[in-house]
Amino acid sequence: EVQLQASGGGLVQPGGSLRLSCVTSGFTFDDYAITWFRQAPGKGREGVAAIRQSDENTFIMPAVKGRFTISKDNAKNTVYLQMNNLKPEDTAVYYCAVVDLKDDSKWYVALSEYVPDYWGQGTLVTVSS
Questions:
Q1: Per-residue pLDDT tens listing for the chain (129 residues)
Q2: Could you tell me the sign of the dihedral formed by the alpha carbons of 120, 114, 93, 82, in that order?
Q3: Measured distance CA(74)–CA(25) in Å, rounded
Q4: Dihedral angle over CA of 122, 96, 62, 70, nearest 10
Q5: Can you give the chain as a three-state secondary structure string?
Q6: 118-121 contacts: CB < 8 A, separation 24 or more?
Q7: Between the CA of residue 78 and those of 42, 100, 112, what are the distances in Å?
Q8: Residue 101 — φ and ψ, nearest 5°?
Q9: What backbone torsions phi and psi does residue 85 show, to the nearest 5 degrees?
Q10: Gyration radius of the chain over CA positions
């Protein structure tokens, strides 16, 4: 059974940092990507960052580039989203999801909410003073 468990959310002041974790299990894909999405109150879900298992290539959405980084620890089956210099507009529920890359072209649309094959539950990030 494929499982993704996101954690690490919380309340942080503007300019602060948080690190989200996504622990994964049950994967049988030859290659895959883990993508972080977020959904702010009253808005749609948007892709934030993605990392590919086979070569560690990454995508970062322009709005967070330079502030957010995505990385993985294969030994722990965990993908991290390091978020620095957080802004109130980063407030959202953050989700991790997996994209099966048996179709290699799906990597290039990994930040689309319509692409993932499995989703984890969300973790709430609130940026407020």
A1: 999 999 999 999 999 999 999 999 998 898 999 999 999 999 999 999 999 999 999 999 999 999 999 999 999 999 999 999 999 999 999 999 999 999 999 999 999 999 999 999 999 999 999
A2: positive
A3: 11
A4: 120
A5: CCEEEEECCEEECCCCCEEEEEEEECCCCCCEEEEEEEECCCCCEEEEEEEECCCCCEEECHHHECCEEEEEEHHHCEEEEEECCCCHHHCEEEEEEEEECCCHHHHHHCCCCCCCCEECCCEEEEECC
A6: 118/2, 118/4, 119/4, 119/95, 120/3, 120/4, 120/5, 120/6, 120/22, 120/95, 120/96, 121/5, 121/6, 121/95
A7: 29, 17, 21
A8: -100, 30
A9: 45, 50
A10: 14
Map tokens 């948080």 to a residue.
18
Q: Give the distance, in angstroms, between the CA of residue 27 and the centroid of all CA atoms in the same chain.
A: 17
**Whose structure tokens read 């690190």?**
19
